[in-house]
Specification:
This protein is of the alpha/beta class and 379 residues long. 43% of the residues lie in helices and 15% in strands.
Protein backbone atom coordinates (compact mmCIF):
# COMPACT_ATOMS: atom_id res chain seq x y z
CA UNK A 1 0.00 0.00 0.00
CA UNK A 2 1.36 3.39 -0.95
CA UNK A 3 0.37 7.00 -0.41
CA UNK A 4 -0.80 8.89 2.63
CA UNK A 5 -2.95 6.67 4.87
CA UNK A 6 -5.76 9.25 5.12
CA UNK A 7 -5.78 10.26 1.45
CA UNK A 8 -8.82 8.27 0.37
CA UNK A 9 -10.86 9.55 3.27
CA UNK A 10 -9.85 13.13 2.52
CA UNK A 11 -10.82 12.58 -1.11
CA UNK A 12 -14.26 11.33 -0.09
CA UNK A 13 -14.81 14.35 2.16
CA UNK A 14 -13.69 16.72 -0.58
CA UNK A 15 -16.09 15.04 -3.00
CA UNK A 16 -18.95 15.48 -0.57
CA UNK A 17 -18.06 19.16 -0.18
CA UNK A 18 -18.11 19.68 -3.95
CA UNK A 19 -21.63 18.24 -4.05
CA UNK A 20 -22.76 20.35 -1.08
CA UNK A 21 -23.28 17.18 0.93
CA UNK A 22 -20.58 17.53 3.57
CA UNK A 23 -22.05 17.09 7.03
CA UNK A 24 -20.82 18.82 10.16
CA UNK A 25 -22.01 18.89 13.75
CA UNK A 26 -23.61 22.06 15.04
CA UNK A 27 -24.85 22.97 18.51
CA UNK A 28 -28.44 23.48 19.55
CA UNK A 29 -29.46 27.08 19.13
CA UNK A 30 -32.66 29.00 18.53
CA UNK A 31 -36.29 27.90 18.61
CA UNK A 32 -36.73 24.17 18.17
CA UNK A 33 -38.14 23.40 14.74
CA UNK A 34 -35.90 20.39 14.13
CA UNK A 35 -36.01 17.92 17.04
CA UNK A 36 -38.22 14.88 17.51
CA UNK A 37 -39.15 15.84 21.08
CA UNK A 38 -42.69 16.39 19.87
CA UNK A 39 -44.42 16.43 23.26
CA UNK A 40 -41.68 18.22 25.17
CA UNK A 41 -41.11 15.24 27.46
CA UNK A 42 -37.31 15.24 27.26
CA UNK A 43 -37.09 18.25 29.57
CA UNK A 44 -40.30 17.65 31.51
CA UNK A 45 -40.17 17.94 35.29
CA UNK A 46 -42.07 14.70 35.79
CA UNK A 47 -39.64 12.63 33.72
CA UNK A 48 -36.67 14.16 35.52
CA UNK A 49 -38.21 13.50 38.91
CA UNK A 50 -38.85 9.85 38.04
CA UNK A 51 -35.18 9.36 37.17
CA UNK A 52 -34.02 11.27 40.26
CA UNK A 53 -36.23 9.10 42.47
CA UNK A 54 -34.79 5.97 40.86
CA UNK A 55 -31.25 7.15 41.55
CA UNK A 56 -32.19 7.94 45.16
CA UNK A 57 -33.45 4.41 45.72
CA UNK A 58 -30.28 2.91 44.29
CA UNK A 59 -31.06 2.17 40.66
CA UNK A 60 -27.69 1.84 38.89
CA UNK A 61 -26.71 4.09 36.00
CA UNK A 62 -25.30 1.26 33.90
CA UNK A 63 -26.71 -2.18 33.17
CA UNK A 64 -23.18 -3.70 33.46
CA UNK A 65 -23.81 -6.50 30.99
CA UNK A 66 -26.09 -8.01 28.38
CA UNK A 67 -29.63 -8.96 29.31
CA UNK A 68 -28.72 -12.66 29.23
CA UNK A 69 -25.93 -12.11 31.73
CA UNK A 70 -26.20 -9.79 34.74
CA UNK A 71 -27.62 -6.89 32.74
CA UNK A 72 -31.27 -7.87 33.14
CA UNK A 73 -32.56 -5.37 35.71
CA UNK A 74 -36.01 -5.26 37.33
CA UNK A 75 -36.53 -1.89 35.65
CA UNK A 76 -36.21 -3.51 32.20
CA UNK A 77 -38.79 -6.15 33.03
CA UNK A 78 -41.18 -3.65 34.59
CA UNK A 79 -40.99 -1.45 31.51
CA UNK A 80 -41.54 -4.36 29.14
CA UNK A 81 -44.56 -5.59 31.11
CA UNK A 82 -46.12 -2.12 31.15
CA UNK A 83 -45.32 -1.56 27.46
CA UNK A 84 -46.94 -4.84 26.39
CA UNK A 85 -50.08 -3.85 28.26
CA UNK A 86 -50.03 -0.26 26.98
CA UNK A 87 -49.61 -1.22 23.33
CA UNK A 88 -51.85 -4.30 23.50
CA UNK A 89 -49.15 -6.79 22.56
CA UNK A 90 -48.21 -10.21 23.90
CA UNK A 91 -44.72 -9.10 24.85
CA UNK A 92 -42.26 -6.23 24.52
CA UNK A 93 -38.47 -6.14 24.35
CA UNK A 94 -36.38 -3.06 25.15
CA UNK A 95 -33.46 -2.27 22.81
CA UNK A 96 -30.80 0.41 23.10
CA UNK A 97 -31.93 2.40 20.05
CA UNK A 98 -34.47 2.41 17.26
CA UNK A 99 -31.74 1.90 14.67
CA UNK A 100 -30.47 -1.16 16.51
CA UNK A 101 -33.98 -2.56 16.94
CA UNK A 102 -34.88 -2.25 13.25
CA UNK A 103 -31.57 -3.77 12.21
CA UNK A 104 -32.04 -6.56 14.77
CA UNK A 105 -35.57 -7.39 13.64
CA UNK A 106 -34.78 -7.67 9.95
CA UNK A 107 -31.58 -9.64 10.42
CA UNK A 108 -33.08 -12.11 12.90
CA UNK A 109 -36.73 -12.77 12.02
CA UNK A 110 -36.96 -13.15 8.21
CA UNK A 111 -35.33 -16.50 7.42
CA UNK A 112 -33.36 -17.89 4.49
CA UNK A 113 -35.87 -18.66 1.76
CA UNK A 114 -38.24 -15.90 2.88
CA UNK A 115 -39.04 -12.69 1.01
CA UNK A 116 -38.81 -9.25 2.59
CA UNK A 117 -40.62 -6.43 0.78
CA UNK A 118 -39.45 -3.05 2.01
CA UNK A 119 -40.91 0.38 1.31
CA UNK A 120 -38.36 2.31 -0.72
CA UNK A 121 -38.49 5.29 1.68
CA UNK A 122 -38.24 3.26 4.88
CA UNK A 123 -35.60 4.31 7.40
CA UNK A 124 -31.93 3.56 6.73
CA UNK A 125 -31.91 1.10 9.65
CA UNK A 126 -34.48 -1.04 7.82
CA UNK A 127 -32.46 -0.95 4.61
CA UNK A 128 -29.31 -1.95 6.49
CA UNK A 129 -31.16 -4.80 8.20
CA UNK A 130 -32.59 -6.00 4.90
CA UNK A 131 -29.15 -6.02 3.27
CA UNK A 132 -27.52 -7.83 6.19
CA UNK A 133 -30.32 -10.36 6.68
CA UNK A 134 -30.81 -13.85 5.30
CA UNK A 135 -34.02 -13.31 3.37
CA UNK A 136 -34.25 -12.18 -0.22
CA UNK A 137 -35.44 -8.59 -0.28
CA UNK A 138 -36.95 -6.20 -2.79
CA UNK A 139 -37.97 -2.55 -2.63
CA UNK A 140 -41.52 -1.46 -3.36
CA UNK A 141 -42.80 1.95 -4.44
CA UNK A 142 -43.58 4.20 -1.49
CA UNK A 143 -46.91 3.53 0.24
CA UNK A 144 -48.08 1.40 -2.71
CA UNK A 145 -49.85 -1.77 -1.55
CA UNK A 146 -50.32 -2.87 -5.16
CA UNK A 147 -46.56 -2.70 -5.74
CA UNK A 148 -45.99 -4.83 -2.64
CA UNK A 149 -48.52 -7.40 -3.83
CA UNK A 150 -46.97 -7.46 -7.30
CA UNK A 151 -43.57 -8.20 -5.75
CA UNK A 152 -45.03 -11.08 -3.74
CA UNK A 153 -46.85 -12.48 -6.77
CA UNK A 154 -43.70 -12.38 -8.92
CA UNK A 155 -41.68 -14.08 -6.19
CA UNK A 156 -44.22 -16.88 -5.83
CA UNK A 157 -44.36 -17.31 -9.62
CA UNK A 158 -40.58 -17.65 -9.67
CA UNK A 159 -40.74 -20.48 -7.13
CA UNK A 160 -40.55 -18.65 -3.80
CA UNK A 161 -41.99 -20.88 -1.09
CA UNK A 162 -40.94 -19.24 2.20
CA UNK A 163 -42.72 -16.73 4.38
CA UNK A 164 -43.30 -13.14 3.23
CA UNK A 165 -42.36 -10.15 5.39
CA UNK A 166 -43.53 -6.60 4.67
CA UNK A 167 -41.74 -3.69 6.36
CA UNK A 168 -43.03 -0.11 6.46
CA UNK A 169 -43.05 3.00 8.60
CA UNK A 170 -46.41 4.24 9.86
CA UNK A 171 -45.32 7.91 9.65
CA UNK A 172 -42.37 8.76 7.44
CA UNK A 173 -39.69 10.92 8.97
CA UNK A 174 -38.76 12.99 5.91
CA UNK A 175 -42.12 13.34 4.15
CA UNK A 176 -44.49 13.41 7.11
CA UNK A 177 -46.96 11.16 5.31
CA UNK A 178 -48.64 8.02 6.65
CA UNK A 179 -48.74 4.46 5.40
CA UNK A 180 -52.08 2.90 4.39
CA UNK A 181 -51.81 0.38 7.22
CA UNK A 182 -55.25 -1.14 6.74
CA UNK A 183 -54.29 -2.07 3.18
CA UNK A 184 -50.98 -3.52 4.29
CA UNK A 185 -52.61 -5.55 7.07
CA UNK A 186 -55.16 -6.93 4.62
CA UNK A 187 -52.34 -7.74 2.23
CA UNK A 188 -50.38 -9.50 4.96
CA UNK A 189 -53.45 -11.55 5.90
CA UNK A 190 -54.13 -12.47 2.29
CA UNK A 191 -50.59 -13.76 1.75
CA UNK A 192 -50.05 -15.21 5.27
CA UNK A 193 -47.27 -12.66 5.68
CA UNK A 194 -45.79 -10.80 8.62
CA UNK A 195 -46.02 -7.01 8.75
CA UNK A 196 -43.31 -5.00 10.53
CA UNK A 197 -44.41 -1.45 11.35
CA UNK A 198 -41.91 1.16 12.49
CA UNK A 199 -43.96 3.54 14.64
CA UNK A 200 -40.96 5.76 15.48
CA UNK A 201 -42.64 9.09 14.68
CA UNK A 202 -46.19 8.06 15.54
CA UNK A 203 -45.64 6.64 19.03
CA UNK A 204 -46.78 9.14 21.64
CA UNK A 205 -48.40 11.48 19.13
CA UNK A 206 -51.04 9.52 17.20
CA UNK A 207 -53.56 6.82 17.99
CA UNK A 208 -55.50 6.24 21.22
CA UNK A 209 -53.38 7.44 24.17
CA UNK A 210 -50.52 7.91 21.71
CA UNK A 211 -50.23 4.19 21.00
CA UNK A 212 -49.51 4.79 17.32
CA UNK A 213 -51.25 4.18 14.03
CA UNK A 214 -50.93 0.40 14.36
CA UNK A 215 -52.76 0.33 17.70
CA UNK A 216 -55.81 -1.42 16.23
CA UNK A 217 -53.65 -4.25 14.91
CA UNK A 218 -51.25 -4.94 17.78
CA UNK A 219 -51.65 -8.30 19.45
CA UNK A 220 -52.16 -10.15 16.17
CA UNK A 221 -49.90 -13.10 15.35
CA UNK A 222 -48.52 -11.47 12.22
CA UNK A 223 -47.82 -7.93 13.47
CA UNK A 224 -44.47 -6.70 14.80
CA UNK A 225 -44.21 -3.05 15.84
CA UNK A 226 -41.30 -0.86 16.85
CA UNK A 227 -41.87 2.06 19.21
CA UNK A 228 -38.91 4.40 19.42
CA UNK A 229 -38.39 5.91 22.87
CA UNK A 230 -36.09 8.76 21.84
CA UNK A 231 -38.62 10.88 20.00
CA UNK A 232 -42.03 11.77 21.46
CA UNK A 233 -41.27 9.74 24.60
CA UNK A 234 -38.36 12.05 25.39
CA UNK A 235 -35.90 9.30 26.42
CA UNK A 236 -33.86 6.82 24.36
CA UNK A 237 -34.04 3.22 23.22
CA UNK A 238 -36.82 1.34 21.46
CA UNK A 239 -39.53 -1.14 22.33
CA UNK A 240 -40.32 -4.03 20.01
CA UNK A 241 -43.84 -5.35 20.56
CA UNK A 242 -44.74 -8.68 19.03
CA UNK A 243 -46.19 -12.14 19.66
CA UNK A 244 -44.46 -13.83 22.60
CA UNK A 245 -42.99 -16.53 20.37
CA UNK A 246 -41.20 -13.96 18.21
CA UNK A 247 -39.88 -12.09 21.24
CA UNK A 248 -38.63 -15.35 22.75
CA UNK A 249 -36.96 -16.10 19.42
CA UNK A 250 -35.22 -12.70 19.48
CA UNK A 251 -33.90 -13.41 22.99
CA UNK A 252 -32.42 -16.66 21.71
CA UNK A 253 -31.32 -15.83 18.18
CA UNK A 254 -30.98 -12.04 17.79
CA UNK A 255 -27.29 -11.18 17.98
CA UNK A 256 -27.76 -7.40 18.51
CA UNK A 257 -29.89 -8.26 21.55
CA UNK A 258 -27.79 -11.13 22.88
CA UNK A 259 -24.37 -9.51 22.59
CA UNK A 260 -25.14 -5.86 23.40
CA UNK A 261 -24.89 -4.36 26.85
CA UNK A 262 -28.43 -3.71 28.04
CA UNK A 263 -29.80 -0.15 28.06
CA UNK A 264 -29.42 1.80 31.28
CA UNK A 265 -31.99 0.83 33.92
CA UNK A 266 -32.50 4.57 34.45
CA UNK A 267 -33.59 4.90 30.84
CA UNK A 268 -36.08 2.09 31.37
CA UNK A 269 -37.46 4.10 34.30
CA UNK A 270 -37.75 7.20 32.10
CA UNK A 271 -39.56 5.35 29.30
CA UNK A 272 -41.97 3.72 31.75
CA UNK A 273 -42.82 7.14 33.17
CA UNK A 274 -43.24 8.56 29.67
CA UNK A 275 -45.78 5.87 28.82
CA UNK A 276 -47.72 6.76 31.96
CA UNK A 277 -47.63 10.43 30.96
CA UNK A 278 -49.21 9.63 27.59
CA UNK A 279 -52.30 8.36 29.40
CA UNK A 280 -52.27 10.97 32.15
CA UNK A 281 -51.63 14.08 30.04
CA UNK A 282 -53.62 13.89 26.78
CA UNK A 283 -53.55 17.69 26.61
CA UNK A 284 -50.01 17.48 25.23
CA UNK A 285 -51.23 15.67 22.12
CA UNK A 286 -54.13 18.07 21.73
CA UNK A 287 -51.82 21.09 21.93
CA UNK A 288 -49.41 19.56 19.43
CA UNK A 289 -52.18 18.86 16.95
CA UNK A 290 -53.27 22.50 17.24
CA UNK A 291 -49.74 23.60 16.37
CA UNK A 292 -49.63 21.16 13.45
CA UNK A 293 -52.88 22.58 12.08
CA UNK A 294 -51.72 26.18 12.52
CA UNK A 295 -48.39 25.58 10.80
CA UNK A 296 -50.11 23.74 7.96
CA UNK A 297 -52.52 26.61 7.34
CA UNK A 298 -49.85 29.28 7.42
CA UNK A 299 -47.39 27.40 5.21
CA UNK A 300 -50.15 26.70 2.70
CA UNK A 301 -51.35 30.33 2.67
CA UNK A 302 -47.93 32.02 2.63
CA UNK A 303 -45.73 29.51 0.79
CA UNK A 304 -48.10 27.32 -1.22
CA UNK A 305 -46.96 24.21 0.59
CA UNK A 306 -49.33 21.27 0.91
CA UNK A 307 -49.70 20.46 4.61
CA UNK A 308 -48.48 16.99 5.54
CA UNK A 309 -51.11 16.68 8.26
CA UNK A 310 -48.48 15.51 10.74
CA UNK A 311 -45.89 17.10 13.00
CA UNK A 312 -43.29 16.64 10.24
CA UNK A 313 -43.61 19.20 7.45
CA UNK A 314 -41.20 18.93 4.53
CA UNK A 315 -40.41 22.01 2.46
CA UNK A 316 -38.79 20.72 -0.73
CA UNK A 317 -36.33 23.12 -2.37
CA UNK A 318 -34.42 20.70 -4.59
CA UNK A 319 -30.96 22.19 -4.93
CA UNK A 320 -28.49 21.17 -2.21
CA UNK A 321 -26.71 24.51 -1.99
CA UNK A 322 -29.86 26.63 -1.88
CA UNK A 323 -31.41 24.32 0.71
CA UNK A 324 -28.48 24.70 3.05
CA UNK A 325 -28.32 28.47 2.44
CA UNK A 326 -32.00 28.86 3.37
CA UNK A 327 -31.52 26.70 6.47
CA UNK A 328 -28.48 28.75 7.53
CA UNK A 329 -30.38 32.00 7.06
CA UNK A 330 -33.27 30.76 9.20
CA UNK A 331 -30.86 29.60 11.89
CA UNK A 332 -29.24 33.05 11.87
CA UNK A 333 -32.68 34.49 12.59
CA UNK A 334 -33.13 32.20 15.58
CA UNK A 335 -35.12 29.32 14.04
CA UNK A 336 -33.44 25.92 14.30
CA UNK A 337 -34.49 24.37 11.00
CA UNK A 338 -32.13 21.93 9.31
CA UNK A 339 -31.55 21.14 5.65
CA UNK A 340 -31.84 17.50 4.54
CA UNK A 341 -29.90 16.31 1.49
CA UNK A 342 -29.28 13.06 -0.42
CA UNK A 343 -28.71 10.25 0.35
CA UNK A 344 -31.15 10.77 3.24
CA UNK A 345 -33.73 11.90 0.66
CA UNK A 346 -33.85 11.15 -3.10
CA UNK A 347 -31.74 13.14 -5.54
CA UNK A 348 -33.25 16.49 -6.44
CA UNK A 349 -35.47 16.65 -3.34
CA UNK A 350 -33.25 18.42 -0.82
CA UNK A 351 -35.52 20.04 1.71
CA UNK A 352 -36.10 21.79 4.95
CA UNK A 353 -37.51 19.43 7.55
CA UNK A 354 -39.80 21.52 9.73
CA UNK A 355 -40.66 19.72 12.95
CA UNK A 356 -43.51 20.86 15.20
CA UNK A 357 -43.06 20.39 18.93
CA UNK A 358 -44.47 21.78 22.15
CA UNK A 359 -41.24 23.75 22.53
CA UNK A 360 -42.75 26.44 20.28
CA UNK A 361 -46.07 28.27 20.49
CA UNK A 362 -48.43 29.85 17.93
CA UNK A 363 -46.50 33.13 17.90
CA UNK A 364 -43.23 31.27 17.25
CA UNK A 365 -44.79 29.43 14.33
CA UNK A 366 -46.07 32.66 12.79
CA UNK A 367 -42.65 34.28 13.20
CA UNK A 368 -40.97 31.25 11.60
CA UNK A 369 -43.28 31.32 8.58
CA UNK A 370 -42.69 35.06 8.15
CA UNK A 371 -38.94 34.55 8.27
CA UNK A 372 -39.18 31.70 5.76
CA UNK A 373 -41.09 33.89 3.31
CA UNK A 374 -38.47 36.64 3.61
CA UNK A 375 -35.50 34.28 3.29
CA UNK A 376 -36.94 32.54 0.23
CA UNK A 377 -37.46 35.88 -1.47
CA UNK A 378 -33.77 36.70 -1.18
CA UNK A 379 -32.12 33.26 -1.38
Amino acid sequence: MSGAPLARYDATLQGLARKDRLRTLSPRAGLDFSSNDYLGLASSKRLGEAVAAAIARGTPVGATGSRLLRGNAPEHEELEADAATFFGADRALFFGSGYLANFALLTALPQKGDLLVLDELAHASMHEGAQAGRAQFVLAAHNDANAVEDAITRWRAEGGVGRVWIAVESLYSMDGDCAPLESFVALADRHEAFLVVDEAHATGVWGPDGRGFAAAFEGRDNIVALHTCGKALGASGALVTAPRTLCDYLVNRCRPFIYATAPSPLMAVAVREALAMLSDEPVRRIQLQERVASAGRQLADRCGVKPSGSQIQPFVIGDNRRTMAVAAALQARGFDIRGIRPPTVPEGTSRLRISLTLSVDEADISAMVEALVEVLASA
